[in-house]
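Table 4 source record.
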Amino acid sequence: MPLTYVEHRPRAALRPHLECLWLVSDPRPRAGRAPERVVPDGCPELIVHLGDPFSRQVGGRWRRQRRAFLAGTLTRPWLLRAGRRVATLGVRFRPGEVTPLLPVSMAAATGRETPLAAIVGRPRARGLVQALAAARSDAACFAAAEDWLTSQFALASRRPAATARPAVRLLLEARGAARIADVARALGWSRRRIERVFSRELGIRPKLFARIVRLNAVLAGLDAAERASAVDMALDAGYFDQAHLLRDFRVLAGRTPRQGRERDGELARNFTHPARLRLLLAGE
């Protein structure tokens, strides 16, 4: 029996900040699961393991993840391995939309797992885990997570708004092919300002975000029938040549264009599904 993956569209008040909430589960304990490869997409995630925590490969070793943590903006693919009992909730933030809800330094969180307790304190972190554990259905679990996130608005009233949003939108609309100087000029910003805003709210430089968006734009149109024309698609997306495309795939996706998303794993292939990536690029 494969893993069960379910997505939930957040309530209206949360949609400017969240792409979705998701649950992955397997009612049967199972050992020896194949690794999962998570490709960077610019979207940080709040992860709560209600079953056995996953492990992540770090420096050639598998390290067990914490019960609840924020996965900051990824700059490299993560290799994960599920535990025997899988039951995990994910909250997928839109790029640049974490800080309006959570008091965290995105620059410090980049490519790292920041314990939720270190961000909101132990009582609030424990409250979320307990509320999710008490839920008796997927709908109840999603509702509990949304209630907790909604309550963060009251606590976040003094935190700044997501000022990177217009720049993020322009880079998504351009599928990552726009020059950063042109984006800054279109917004009436200086180059220094756009760099500062991205560092604070995404944790990465705008040029790296554009690379991530451009790669995901290729993945969004790269189904099994189109892999043979991957180079033509890449040139249309703004890559200089085949070598440029292959380098970004190797660094950011950890695979080649002609290797399908099935290679990413039972769970991770849902994250690179073309339909999901097209919605991300459209800002929906």
